[in-house]
Amino acid sequence: MTAPRTMSDQIRVVATIGLLIVVAAFAGRAWAFHESGVATCGGCHVIHNTQDGVPIIPDSPSGYDKLLLYETATDLCLSCHATRNGEVLGANPTAPPPEKGAGNFTFLWEDNINDGAGGSLNPIAGNHAGHNVASVGWGIPIDPDHAVAPGGTYPAVDLACTSCHDPHGNENFRMLRGAGQPDGSGFVFTYDAPRGSGISFLFGQESPTSHTAYNQGWTRWCANCHGFFHEENGQIFEHPADRFLSGQQWNSYNRYNGPADPMGGDYATAYLPEVPIEDVGMTPSSTFGATISSRVICLSCHRAHATSAPKSLRWDGNIEFLNSDGLESESYPLPDPYADPNQRSLCVKCHWQRASAHGWGEPCLDCHR
Predict the structure, then answer these.
(1) Contact at 8 Å (CB) between 86 and 202?
(2) Tens-digit pLDDT profile for residues 348-359
(3) Residues 99/205, Cβ–Cβ less than 8 Å
(4) Contact 332, 308 (CB under 8 A)
(5) Model pTM?
(6) Using alpha carbons only, how large is the chain's radius of gyration in Å?
(7) Span 74-87, pLDDT tens digits
(8) What is the Cα–Cα distance from 344 to 35, expressed in whole angstroms?
(9) DSSP one-letter string for 54-109
(10) Are 140 and 108 in contact (CB under 8 A)?
């Protein structure tokens, strides 16, 4: 090998040798993009905002905050994850991408998600569809109706993808933030990250045999921002959010099999991803229903991102029958897992034995608010 003749040549040789050493050291591991692997920092950050004296980001001569490639953290996340790599912001809210479990931010763009009686004349805007992760580049404004998280103190102005997910990676499910870890705004979580496992967000979609498995700690994790919203403070709608199902409830969950066969279900195949429960034994392919250790959690009724129903609900609480969804609002009709025109609100999955005797002719939430 010929000796380098100039300082520049020497620097190139040292850099090349260093790169070879790094590559050799990690040859046995396939680094993920968010795991601080080799050469991934530049996927999100610039160093001096220039390359050979030319600004990398012409609109921002001094660079964006934290030397990001985009104006906000959410803009940056969505540059990869909006319509690919998970498709968390499908381009068309009336034709969303396949459901992966958390819902889709595309519904924040809807002009109306009110399918209740007279809903077309009394629109509910899409900002009520879920978490308003503000994005300049994708046209998602800061939540105009809630200055802080309902039930808690997290400021709406700071809500971003990185409020919940650690962009630099961690060992938690979906890189969720844990106790003691501050997000980009300085907010520190009290409760640790939940335990769970899920399906790939690169292909496939949620189904009874392929779904998120909620194992432990989900409601407490939501409580970092929302408190125990429906269990305290005299909320208008009171509902258990972190409790074991009662005997009647898990019996109803296991036996309910749609309006054509309401009490003919089998525990072995009773699991419904549209009404998930928390259970330490659950896996993404589990089909078994509720056990004495199963819990109702926030995500039994809500999805984490957004849906085409108000309040990020998994089904619209303003209608009696699921086949009415989308008719008044012309928004995306949330699928009916039982494909039956007589299917009522999915509240009946846990409450059929009581609901079968009353409430016909009106939505559940007409009385239970």
Answers:
(1) yes
(2) 999 998 888 887
(3) yes
(4) yes
(5) 0.86
(6) 24
(7) 999 999 999 988 99
(8) 44
(9) EESSTT-TT--GGGBSSSSHHHHHHHHHSSSTT-SS-S-TTSPPPP-SS--GGGGG
(10) yes
